[in-house]
Amino acid sequence: MxxxxxxxxxxxxxxxDVIPGTEExxxxxxxxxxxxFDPTSDSLHIGSLVPIFILxxxxxxxxxxxxxxxxxxxxxxxxxxxSDERNLLDKKILKHNEKKLKLQFEKFLDFKSNIPNxxxxxxxxxxxxxFSIIDFSRDIGKHITVNYxxxxxSVKKRISKDTTQGMSFTEFTYQLIQxxxxxxxxxxxxxxxxxxxxxxxxxxxxxxxxIRRKENKKAYAMTCPLIKKSDGSKFGKSEGGNIWLDxxxxxxxxxxxxxxxxxxxxxxxYIKVFTFLSKENVEDIIQEHNEDRSRRLLQNKIAEIVTIMxxxxxxxxxxxxxxxxxxxxxxxxxxxxLDEKTFNEIxxxxxxxxxxxxxxxxxxxxxxxxSLETNFLKSISDARRSLKxxxxxxxxxxxxxxxxxxxxxxxxxxxxxxxRGRKNYHLVIFN
Length: 431
Known about the structure:
By secondary structure, the protein is α/β, with parallel strands linked by helices.
């Protein structure tokens, strides 16, 4: 039995615009639908999870999802939601990006099993590269007027009096090319639905209009709202930029921490958008969360689920272990288990000192390291007092005033972590 796709998106807050008749059509007919992704990077980011999850809900509802990689449109750049023209990418970079992205899509969508609605992946370069400018202008361009294209919000914003950049012809044609993608998939794969973010509505409806004018047939469109943080800032961004799905671009620790640190208000929305939990389960978790928000139940649940989906359960366990290094009980062994990138991310912003590795040829008295060598503590006497109070740790292990630092203390052959009390850290880097 087919699930009600639109109804599922509505309660999750993932429906923005929809062409009349779409819900009725989907409730009665198994349908082929697609979302396009321009391969402008070799990794998706967490903002990409929204359209991916929509495709997954679509597949779970018994319909056939198509992932369209914009090998052709990625060479142009979509003006929707942009104030400046994007840099154009060459074929070699796009090919590399496409290969990496396909592996990420496969974590969420079923492309391989024998189910009748297995996911499909296509690339618009395969058909757009065969078009000459004459053929495209004659066969496609004549069906959509300039007046129609000028009426789109993405175009209006770029050519308004408030902007000085204007809009190139290249970008202006983007909606027509995307519209042709829909027409092509309609003709070749009986694709009747295009989905995307709310900023894509103009491009998507150009496709439905092209199908109507050229084929005299009805096609459908649906968009989801653009996900933002409760403070109005852009979702998926941190101080360091995008939160990527590729662990080489964003470590699993940083990825996990992003979800762990979202606000309560955002968490109430995100548990619906970024998990596949049932409505009943979501409502129960929200209720339990609201009973004692200090436990941050929602944040922990979202961070756990999304990290496992994007990475793995083992990666999640490692991220939790890394988090405990700063905020819980841990040991030297825990520190040594961290890769250097994660180690540096954890202690980013912690005061540090650089000391020549040669000084470890002979052992360094701990009181000298705490004061004279690093200025972590103000003086030798301050160091001695802290040591007697048993408040000093080296690499998370409590030490006595007789302790001497040697090469055996080095983490990753480079670091020694000093700690006073629970929250005062100092990182010593031996070069």
